[in-house]
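Throughout our pipeline, every protein is held as a single compact record rather than as scattered files. The record that follows is passed on verbatim for readers who wish to inspect the format.
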Amino acid sequence: MLAAAVTPAPSLVFGMIAVAATASIGAFVLIERRSRELSASLDETIRRLLQAGGTDELTGLASRAAFGRAIEGEIARVRRGGQGRFAILRIDVLGLSKMDAANGETALLWFAGVLSRQTRGIDGRARLGGDEFGIVLVGADSGTASRVVDRIRAMPAPANVRLTFGVATYPDDGATPEALVQRAEEELAVLA
């Protein structure tokens, strides 16, 4: 004898669909929450790397090594998210060699203050050595980087101090920290 086909009641079908939809929404919410937690954790890690990885004694900004690690951290964050971008700025403070030591230090401290005031707390600011500085602009495109450059240029500078800027954006100008820094430094050479 053949078994009769059993058709579930419509209310049972709708109930099963509702359970599946609720489970899917719940899973999505958990994934989204975990993604935000990981992003916040990475932001905190980048901040700690900038602090623990070395700080310039004079300016209180991060060191060259910490700047490189911040770029690596941003590349990892953007790749993990599957989208996004960031920019780096390379800045040279020209004219310090014509100053005596006290005025040169004053100019460096002035510029470190300018960087702190004209960038966001999540952006990495570093003194790379001598009169060289760098910024990691989290989530920035070239337009945002240009606006930051304009704000910094607009600040009144000590006498005989001139600034030159180089900008590189990820992923447009390079996929590695080295390529991004090289691109920004090439722009510096053109503008100097």
Q: What stands out?
A: The CA atoms of residues 14 and 146 lie 55 Å apart. The chain has a mean pLDDT of 86. The first helix runs from residue 10 to 52. DSSP finds five helices and four strands in the chain.
